[in-house]
Design a protein that fits this description.
By secondary structure, the protein is of the alpha+beta class. Helices cover 40% and strands 13% of the residues. The chain is built from 14 helices and 13 strands. The chain has helices spanning 3-12, 48-69, 71-84, 98-112, 123-137, 257-279, 334-348, 353-357, 365-405, 418-423, 426-429, 443-455, 461-467, 472-489, and strands spanning 90-93, 139-146, 163-168, 179-182, 188-193, 196-199, 204-210, 227-231, 235-239, 282-286, 303-305, 321-325, 431-434. The strands form four sheets. It has a five-stranded antiparallel beta sheet, with no helix packed on it. β5 and β6 form a beta hairpin. The longest helix has 41 residues, at 365-405. The relative contact order is 0.10.
Length: 524
């Protein structure tokens, strides 16, 4: 809304109107000046969702095209997905009831393979697909499909928990549906904006989805223009929120699409120049223009190309002709320009340059360590604040409720848990999401630092184990089993802290061998 329009509305409402500030070429903030240099900057006042409503579809299409044809765009997404998702983000129930934890984790592991409604992957694969689509298209929709207990998956096995997830691209959301929602008596009870239905508290209550992908022209038996209303509790809407009031996602490549396109054009031009130089083009030049019949009479340039030259061949020139060769000059700015271009693309999507293009020629140990630490902080922020909150937590809540209601999850005596859940739902929903482990930059030094932090009390051993992507209970149980087996077989390991120290020598806990009795001297 223009400032003048805002002030006129304020006057009409009876508010005291402040004088409209005049625009001037100079300003206390150079970025707010309207000088010749700054006046051509386009800076709309529109809300973020309005901007996305206008441009998200174009950005999404161009982002997908860039990923299809540009190696830097495709590799950038691969690096993000491999670091943020890896082999999967797993839940760890924090309940103090060990038997409940074991039962829940075992049931979850069995359900993971049945999570996908299409049967093409497991829950970890759904996480990968959701994260990839979020980066490429700006957002993704996961629809929770509640099944009957008698339903089976594609392998013919009974679903251990009657719940599956159907992944949908954001194209399924009716972006053009914008209207108010009226009750039976004509009272406004909400609005539909960008295909999302909100109540008067600005809470999403439903999503209006196309029954088939609107651009899937081979969809069988479905009307691509028909929509269905799906309650918001059944939708996992994942996108990175950058501004208040934002309800649709922006493709992560939006900031670098122009640079990707221009760099690709520049590299193509350099490639064509190189191909031309490699062909070593020859030409004939007529030096004696008075000699007729040597070159076509229509040739006004005085030269014509030789199109039939084979390797190691000798060409006899006619009188008045001489042979020349083209020599296209190299571009001295090619390497620095392309390197700087890839650096800008990497920065635009939150990566270090060597992560984008694999070029470590300018990277040393210290710079690589700093870059990795900065990336990990950003990655952990997005993992926890966006993905775990929008995708993992709602999935867990729906899964635990279905597991209890269907009777798949019971207590140690075989009794149902619905009453316990109603009394204390937090004991079932309080979950740690174990992120993919980070590989150590310098394993020896990093392990020593981790061990020092554990022994000095600055960090719990369990926290270190979880950061490595393992379950604390499982690790300790396996260690106990291994040590018990070693004791049974009479094996002493130098990694057993009960019997050996860090340097491999015996400890006070180690059993001391009995000393032999010295022989008695004769005559005594």
């Amino acid at each position: 809304m223009a400032l003048e329009t805002f002030m006129s509305l304020a006057r009409a409402a009876g508010h005291e109107a402040l004088p409209i500030p005049k625009r001037s070429a100079s300003s206390a903030y150079p970025g707010a000046s309207f000088s010749r240099r700054m006046s051509k900057i386009y800076a709309p006042k529109d809300a973020i969702s309005t901007l996305l409503w206008q441009h998200a579809e174009t950005l999404r299409d161009r982002s997908r095209q860039a990923v299809r044809q540009n190696p830097w765009a495709a590799n950038g997404i691969e690096r993000w997905v491999s670091n943020a998702i890896g082999t999967g983000i797993s839940p760890k129930l924090k309940s103090r009831d060990k038997a409940l934890r074991k039962a829940v984790h075992e049931l979850w592991r069995r359900w993971v393979d049945q999570a996908d409604a299409t049967g093409q992957t497991d829950f970890n694969g759904l996480e990968e697909l959701a994260y990839r689509c979020t980066i490429e298209a700006g957002e993704v929709l996961g629809r929770l499909r509640f099944r009957y207990p008698t339903d089976s998956d594609r392998l013919g096995l009974k679903l251990v928990v009657p719940l599956q997830i159907q992944m949908l691209e954001p194209d399924h959301l009716d972006f053009q549906k914008n209207k108010s929602v009226q009750s039976a008596n004509g009272t406004t009870v909400g609005t539909i904006r960008w295909g999302i239905e909100f109540d008067l508290m600005e809470q999403p209550v439903a999503y209006h989805l196309y029954k088939a992908h609107p651009y899937d022209y081979q969809a069988a038996g479905a009307n691509r223009t028909e929509t269905t209303r799906v309650p918001a509790k059944q939708i996992l809407h994942v996108f990175r929120r950058m501004r208040g009031g934002q309800w649709r996602g922006e493709p992560w490549l939006s900031k670098v699409l122009t640079r990707l396109y221009e760099l690709e054009r520049y590299e193509d031009a350099a490639l064509q120049r190189g191909l031309g130089a490699a062909l070593y083009s020859l030409y004939l030049k007529k030096t004696d223009l008075s000699t007729p019949g040597i070159l076509p009479e229509t040739d006004q340039s005085g030269q014509t190309a030789i199109t039939d030259v084979s390797p190691l061949s000798f060409n006899v020139l006619k009188p008045g002709e001489e042979m020349g060769a083209t020599d296209p000059p190299d571009d001295p700015n090619y390497e620095p320009y392309t390197k700087d271009g890839r650096r800008g693309i990497a920065a635009g999507i939150g990566l270090a340059k060597h992560q984008l293009d694999g070029d470590v020629s300018d990277v040393n140990f210290s710079s690589a360590r700093v870059a990795i630490q900065e990336f990990r902080r950003l990655c952990e922020q997005i993992q926890n604040n966006m993905f775990a909150y929008q995708f993992c937590r709602p999935t867990w809540k729906a899964w635990i409720e279905q597991a209890i209601l269907s009777g798949a999850l019971r207590d140690s005596t075989g009794g149902t848990l619905d009453t316990a859940y109603n009394v204390d739902p937090w004991s079932f929903l309080d979950v740690d999401w174990s992120m993919p482990k980070w590989d150590w930059v310098d394993p020896l030094k990093d392990i020593e630092a981790e061990k020092t932090a554990n022994r000095s009390g600055y960090k719990a051993i369990g926290q270190s184990i979880k950061e490595r992507g393992y379950d604390v209970d499982e690790v300790f149980e396996e260690i106990a089993q291994n040590l018990a087996l070693a004791d049974e077989l009479g094996i002493t390991l130098d990694t057993d802290p009960r019997k050996t120290s860090n340097n491999g020598t015996g400890t006070a806990l180690a059993a001391k061998p009995e000393e032999p009795t010295p022989p008695r001297k004769k005559g005594k």
